[in-house]
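Re: the 158-residue chain
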Amino acid sequence: MSHYCAACDRCFNTSISLLQHLNFSAHAASYECDSCDHKFDSQLILNQHLSSLVHALLYNCDDCDHSFDSQEILEQHFNSSLHISVFECHDCDREFESQQTLNQHLNSFAHSSSYECDDCDREFESQQTLNQHLNSFAHSSSYECNNCDRKFENQQTL
């Protein structure tokens, strides 16, 4: 019966020979799984790991690309200082710790208010679109005084 080394695809006559071979420093784990950071002695074993059911049952962080072996470790990751993700609202520039809290903010009553242009009274759904309007060519047209023909940047200074 032969004893097989999966790392280098060699066969040995005895288990002692195989163990001596495996203990040799050339067999240091050098193939790492990008998803879970486990290390393997060969590409073959890494490929088996990647296609295994165990690998498919990893707990993935929805906010970053990390995967974990258990729900408990995933929760520790969420609560650690290593898991600092910032989710920014592009309408009001507030920052949130998770996509879920950002979504709650976006769907909240406080966020659904409209933004009004003080110059032309148009309403916009977000601060960002109001800012675009304020910086647009259509908005930059000046206001002319009917009495003196002077031009002003907005109705308030007219």
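The chain has a mean pLDDT of 74.
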